[in-house]
Amino acid sequence: MNDVWVTLARPAADLAVRAIQQNEVVAVIGAPTTGKSNVLRLIAQQVGAAPVFWTRMPTVGDDAGPVALASLAAQLEPDVLAAVKDVDRPWRDKVDLVVGALAGRDAVVLVDDLRQPAHGTQPLVFDDQAAELFAALLRQSRIRLVTTSSERPPHRATAVKVVPTMDAAMVARAVEGLEADPYFADAVTAVRAAGPQFSRHSPVEVRLAVDLVARGLPLDVVVAMPGPRSLARAFLTRLPRHEQLALQRLAVLRVPCDRSTVDEIAAIGGGLASRRWESVALYESGDGWVLPAVITDELRALAADGRLPPDPARIDEARHVAAQFHQRAFMGAAALGAVPDAVRHELELVHQLTQAGDAPALLARSLWFVTQYDALGRSVGLRGAELYRRRPIEALPRDAGPSPEAERYLRAALMAYDRALAHDPRDAYALHYRAYNADILAEDATAVYDGYRAALEVDADQVWHHGRFITFLITRGRREDARAAWDAALRQLDGLREERWFYDQLHRPVALLLLHRGNTTFAREVLADVPAGFAGGGWFPALERRLQVLEELADGRLVFPPNIPVDDRWKGPTLVWGAERPERWAPGWVEVSDDQRVVVRYAEQLAGAVVYGRAEYLPSQFRALCDVASPPAGTFVERLWFADRGGEVIRCHRSQPEDELPYPFPPSARYLNRRAADPR
Fold it and tell me: Which domain does 619 fall in, by range?
């Protein structure tokens, strides 16, 4: 921690220490890059004789709770750590043991990057574990607790805000070293000269600003960027593609590592003619080299919205390089008896192999927490499902099942969940997701049914447990059972009706599958249960349109394409060009199209009423009238009559009802297709 960071962190640390002395729970709050972790380091130096325990809750991955708990246990007696490593010991027992030991010491516990539940979705077991550990620490009055977060402070905490206050000398110190590269020299001079304008920037932000100015952005534009995330995004989106990919690979690192590992990961795949980004995006902590969290967070956000698509194979390679580093570091720390370091590196090793989907390597190890097996099952199961979901479009109507690679991942997920259930038969997450992965494979419907039911018996408050059970019953043709399960879900989950994600996770997949199967009565019941406040956007209008299409088709009233809103249907024809004004028009739909005839089902407004009819043409007649020679059945058309053309003109819409909604996943005919492919 250099003197710039110390100066920036000191005011918040002093405030926090005073609050600790008053036995207050303290939350150090600040934007990314403001130095919250440095505040914790200063607090540790200033609390006097009180024993200090430091832990972290990684913001990436499914192991925030286990990492935080094991890190605390590693700083206690060996028997406490041994108990935490016992995979058969229940999670809550481990939490009580560690928290009790800390309370017995009147400890100051510093929790870096407090993991708080995400908004807009139901928490998973992985989030619950982090929350349970924090709640247990919070309940102990003999533990003085300090957390950091870029978001809201936790309940009952005194917020201490970290706000950078940089003078001109500190701005100059923040950019030291960059001027040695002629590429940055003029930008460094400009930023130093504008020192007061960067008084609320952190050192990381100042270095990002130098890079952006060097790339030609006006200084005033850079200064006006609203916060570190904007600066990081501007920096990342202006890098050459090969440098973006190098940073995406380095973003797999959650903790600092040695320089040789950084170099090896950066060089994967070759093509790095320049590594100028290192001067800006890579920094050295006391333990090694790492990217700032704001850079890794923005890389993930840009990948998620499609602006920086990653190279998955190279990222997996980077994870294996990182795992090898952590294996070496673990062995070295264990040989020296450095227990906290050994624990940290072993947990990171497991994380990297989990995210790489390396089930054989992990299943050959003895893991410490049941949820580590759950996390492995989740990682490889998602890989298998995604490979299956992205199968070629021509495979959809008659699906032959997952590819060999997808099937290998799905079976690895079953093995991981089996291992979890061997240690905890009531692991609801493993029960449910083992059933779900088996449901995708579609080999044993009885085992799938039993698995879904078992998960519901253990945890009936998880929306996915209900939704996937209902869609399984619909898939199997068990309509009455599906209706009963739907009613049971609404009763059980009634307290979630104020949450949008409740409808996203329950109503959406159920309605989509019902519409795909043509069950309009049940689908209307499901969609009618969505409140008006949640029905105005997203997926709901598309499902409503599909329902309307199916109902109109069944009643012989289907004449408008689904992309035309109901309120706009009779406002006039849409397939007219320029100043054309037909004297009469009728929307329609091609019911039959073969080498003998073309039949159009159409409707007209006559005397305020809608009148339906059918028009039949010989193929040669239709070709003479239509702008498309042989439109297939299902094509929407408009019949138009113009006074100056002496007769009818037919024009075709380009959209089809199937264009709006995705196919359900898993495929709705998977059990039938599996039986046809393997009739045993």
Answer: 566-654
